Every structure is written in structure tokens, then in C-alpha cells.
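Researcher: We are triaging several targets before committing to wet-lab work. For this one, the compound of interest is adenosine-5'-triphosphate. I'm pasting the protein sequence and the ligand SMILES. What I need is the predicted three-dimensional arrangement of the protein with the ligand bound, expressed as C-alpha cells, so it can go straight into our comparison scripts without reformatting.
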Amino acid sequence: MISVKQLTKKYARNLAVDHISFEVQKGQIVGFLGPNGAGKTTTMRMLTCFMPPTSGGATVAGFDVLEQPLEVKKRIGYLPESPPLYPEMETGEYLTFVGRLKGLSGAELKKRVDYVCDRCAVEDVRNKLLGRLSKGYRQRVGLAQAIIHNPDVLVLDEPTAGLDPKQINETRDLIKGLAGDHTIILSTHILPEVEQTCEQVVIISKGKLVATDSVTNLQNRARGAESLLVEVGSRDGAVDSAVVVTRLQQIPGVSRAQLKTTHGDRNVFEVESQKGFVRGELARAVVQAGWDLNELRPAAVSLEEIFLQLTGAEAAGKGAA
Amino acid sequence: MRNIWIIWRKELRSYFVSPIAYLLLTMFALIFGFFFWNALGYFVMMGMESQMRGQPMPMNLNEEVIRPLLSNASVIGLFFIPMITMRLFAEEKRSGTIELLVTSPVRDIEIILGKWLAALTMYGCMLLFTALNFAFLFKYGNPDWKPLAIGYLGLLLQAGGLLAIGTFISTLTKNQIIAGAATFGVCLLLWILEWVSGYETAAWAQVLAYMSVITHFESFGKGVLDMKDAIYYLTVIFLGLFFTARSMESLRWRS
Ligand SMILES: Nc1ncnc2c1ncn2[C@@H]1O[C@H](COP(=O)(O)OP(=O)(O)OP(=O)(O)O)[C@@H](O)[C@H]1O
Ligand SMILES: [Mg+2]
């Protein structure tokens, strides 16, 4: 549905997007992940025909963004980074205006406005001036305008930014509900968001494509070097943490062990293992040493870690080659 | 066509939900009204004087009241046009709504025409208020309506050209105030260019004087439809809108 080939954007001397290529299949939700300034917004602006690429190209629903922008625009719903709202308009009036702009009219327009108001939970601010809405509501109205014409492709730039937790979940559900009929590409810095909503991830950093894979593959890949948190205790109270660290480091597969936190006589150690699962070994070693294994859990993999790991791996790979 | 209409409606509405439209209408009506009653008062006084002297001059409302008033209106217009056009694109760029317009299935030229026509309509509304004054003339005198209509056509054409220039300038910045000030500067310049013809007769001076928007209003003010002058205004309109379109295009390449 979306096909990006060697897409490049240069601002003056600054290469914002550097030869990016990826594909998105129909009906998929793709998470577009990257730190600040990675080039997510720039890529999305090129996909939505807001600005032309410096070189390379992209097709959306089979239409080229440079050759047939009008056809592309008809099929895309776009939520920019800051919702494009006119402060002097009321919500309902604004949605009607956008609907007209996207080619709707008459009874259908009215139906769609009612539908998106309901779907994006903006019914109760329908007669309010957009300039007076809170950030979260502005975001919701932005989402409502993106889906008003029931587009094949949705491009959402940080759709959950500024929403409250309940609304974040509702928005994620909404987005998931839209998948299937719609192909969705959404940008975010939040990894759990990608894990919850997306099937596919495209990661970019400093304008370069770092990884494109399914969410599950990527998680496994990131956890290739696993980080575990182990809480070790003892019935008689005192555990010598140095002894525990030494013992943990002796376990085959463990690359590093260190004391992470201490709460009274509760000691939490962080254990990094290179590959595969060493949990069994770990548990056995602790118990055999006569200590209690109070807790053993994987350290949450943060976006940063995935990033560091992936970008690090790429760099190492390049260095080796 | 439909898209132009959609944009036009949106723009016009945003003039009238904000105080700007009412401010413009009131100010324009007040200033014009002042000129009108002044001119009329002078006219009446002259009439009485000539009667007292016992040699009634042929008095002509068209010549003595309407014509100077129309020239005045064309000059007052110069001051109001920046206020009409300054927000057209600058505000959309500042607030990011330009992203909505440009990523909608609408051509650039439809956006531009919609906005320009809305600005022209706004100016038309302002002229409409001045027409009330003239209605008064028709009630108590019998001026010729044809020169008046041609004069109004001239005012609209001139405003169309300046509004097109203002629209273009508005695409160049995110800041309304800058757009307004720059437009005002250009309008003023286009007005005073004519002055060089006062002391200089060389070719360059004639060219400069030709470019002055005011020079071309003279014929309309007299109630004469001179094609040369109409074509001048149409050219300004075309060029203004053309450069606006180019600017929108390059905006995307740059931003
Ligand atoms: N209009 C512009 N002119 C010049 N440089 C720009 C412009 N817009 C973005 N950039 C630069 O391009 C790079 C990518 O920016 P972009 O906005 O695409 O990042 P992003 O991934 O969306 O970041 P964020 O997560 O902060 O939204 C940045 O280095 C930024 O400084
Ligand atoms: Mg961004």
C-alpha cells in the first residue's frame, strides 16, 4: 500500500532523511519509531505530499507522490504533529469544512461528521471553539479530521501526544479498530505504544533506516542480549552482595552482574546475559548457594536500549564488513 | 470550482467572526463618510455662492462630488488593503493549518483564488458601505449613474491588483505584522511612483509613472472605461496571483 524507495530530504545542508526504503502492506499498522530529530515528521510530510523529496520517491495506494499528488491526497488522512485547527471555528463546523475539502458533501458529509465525533469522543465539545479546547481534545479533533473521509491510508504523527492515560488507551484501540480497512503509519517515541498497537516497526535514527521488522522479531532481537533483575535474600538476613555478584558471574552465559538496588536486606542484582535463556541456571545457582530467590524478571526493554543495541549492532556490523 | 468556493467561504467567515471585518468596515465607512460630507458641504457652499453672485454656474454632481470622492476612495483603499491580506497565508503558516490545506485534494491555485476572492469580497463589502452615501445623492440630486458604476469597477480592479500583491507577500512570512507592513510599503510605493512624472519626463520616469496604480485610476474616476487601464490592473492581478502560486510551490521545496 505504501512503498518508499530511497527517499531522501535535504534541508539546506542538513540531511534530514537519508535514502530510506520500506514497504507497508495493506491493512497493516506500522509504527514509525525514532528519537527526536530522526526525520519522522519529514518522512511523513513527503508521504502526504506536503513537501517533495529531494531524491528518491514513494508511492501511496499505487500513486506516485510526485507524479499524481492529487490522487495520493484523496486517499490519505493526515494528522500533523500539531493538529491543524482554526481557533475561530467550532468543532462541528471545522469537521464539516475539512470534510468538504476532502470531497464529501450532503447527507454523507453529515453522516461522517456524526460518525467521527462519536468515534473520537469529541461529541461534548462539538459546539465549542477550537481555540478554547484543551490539548487532549485538540488532538482528538485532529484525529477526527484525519479519518473524516474514510481514507485508505492514515498517516498519524504522534497521535497520542498530550492525551491522558485513559484517552491514550482509547486512541490506541481506535487506531487498532481502524486497521484492516485502513493502512496506518504512526510515529512515536514510545515503545509500549508500538508493542500494543503495531504489527510492524520502522526504526530510523538521524535520518537513516536502522531496522524494519515485525514487532515480535524486533523484541526478540533486542532481547538477544537479555538483562534480568534478580532479587536475592537470605533467611538469616545478611547477604554479602560481593559474594553473590561473584557467584552470579560464574554462571555460564552471564556477561556482567552487578548490585542494582538495596532496600534494607533486599538486594536486587542486574544480570546481563549474552544469548539464550539463562534463567534456569541462575535460579539453580542462587538456591544451591543457600540463598532465597525472591524475584527473577526481565528488565523492561526501553526504546533507548533497543536503539542503542540496534544502532550499536549496525555500526559494529559495518565495522566488521 | 467547488474547492474555490469552499475556501472562499471559510476565509470570508473568518473575517466576519473576528473583529477585523467590523473594524475595517467601520473605519472605512467613517473616513469615507467624512470625505463625502466634506465634499458635499463644499459643493453646496459653492452653489450658494454662485447663486448669490447671480451668475449660476452649471453645477455638476458627477464632476464636483463623485469624481474627487472616488479618487479619495482609491487612496484610502491603499491603507486598508494590507489589513485585509496580511493574515491570508501568514496565519496558516504560523498555526500549521497550511499542512491541512496543502495535503487536501485541492490544487494550490484553488486555495489562492479562494483566498484572494474572499479578500476582494471583503473589500467589496467595504465599498458597499460607501455606496450608501451615494444613495443619498441619488435621492436629492440626479447624478449620472454610469460614471459612478465605472468608478466602482475601477476601485475593485485596483483593489484586486493590490490584494493579489498582498496575498503574495503573505506567503513569504509566518508573521502577519511583517506581511502587513511590507504590503503597506509596496502599496505606498506603487502610489507615489507617479510623483516622478512631476519633474522628470525621461523614459524611465514615464515607465515608473506607468507602474503607479494611481495613474491608471484617473480614467475610471472620470467615468471612462479605458481598456489600457483595465488591462494594467488585470495584469497586476495576474502577476500577483502567479507569484503567489510560485511562492507556494517553492515554499514546499524549501521548508
Ligand atoms: N523546516 C525545516 N528546515 C530545516 N531543517 C528542518 C526543518 N524541519 C526539520 N528539520 C530538521 O530535519 C531533521 C528531522 O526533523 P523531523 O522533524 O523530521 O524529526 P522528527 O523525527 O519528527 O523529530 P520529533 O520526534 O522531535 O518530532 C532535524 O534535524 C530538524 O532539525
Ligand atoms: Mg516529529
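Researcher: Any quick observations?
Model: The domain at 225-299 of chain A is CATH 3.30.70.3190 (Alpha-Beta Plaits).
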